[in-house]
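Probable electron transfer flavoprotein subunit beta, pasting as requested.
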Amino acid sequence: MQPTAVRMSQKLRILVPVKRVIDYAVKPRVKSDKSGVETQGVKHSMNPFDELSIEEAARMREKKLPVDEIIAISAGPAKCADTLRTAMAMGADRSIHVDVAEDKPLEPLQVAKLLKAAAEKENVNLIFLGKQAIDDDSGQTGQMLAALLGWPQATQAAKVEVNGDEVTVTREVDGGVETLKAKLPMIITTDLRLNEPRYASLPNIMKAKKKKMEKKSLKDYGLEEAFRLKTIKVEEPPARQGGGKVEDVDGMISKFKELGVL
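Structure tokens follow.
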């Protein structure tokens, strides 16, 4: 049987949003005034799900798919530049830093509007996003962006295959696996099963310093700060109480009755 030829009629211009978040290995601390989580003096890194997105885009090029350009974009304070350099060290060709104050982070809808404007300006036809950011766990931006652009979407991707302008995405769902097909342009949100992100080696980090990083503002994309959500209070979860021991099943049932769960 002859192998099926891969159609390569359309070049891929890929946009990958990346977010600077508190490192996954750090235990967050609530501020003393309970207004949010303490970020000063805390180690930050790229959102793990965004690492998957950069890795998948880089692998597409390594598979000899017609990748024209991989563009990383991040909205946040000056330190986001480090996150973008990591993205370029992992395979992005250039990056865009949208300056946003650290104490005024964008909400998911505002991020989606920003990405819509950037996607149109950069003329991209494929957007990889992490399915969620580990700081707020909103998990909304990809879906909102698809609605704003009117593009098809596949969320929580575990496998991505491109054949010409047709994209096949496999995703895990409750009780099985679901396979979706759509045509470019398209939005894909990534999940942990998709790949194993590469390590940004020192030589690649040095090379990334020579890659272009554009400085932008919200106004450059026709946007202004707009806040619809207000954080009332942030609290630590209650301390977990220790368990107890019972002698036998009858004792366990009696304990359950005592607690009112039976």
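Note for the archive: DSSP finds six helices and eleven strands in the chain.
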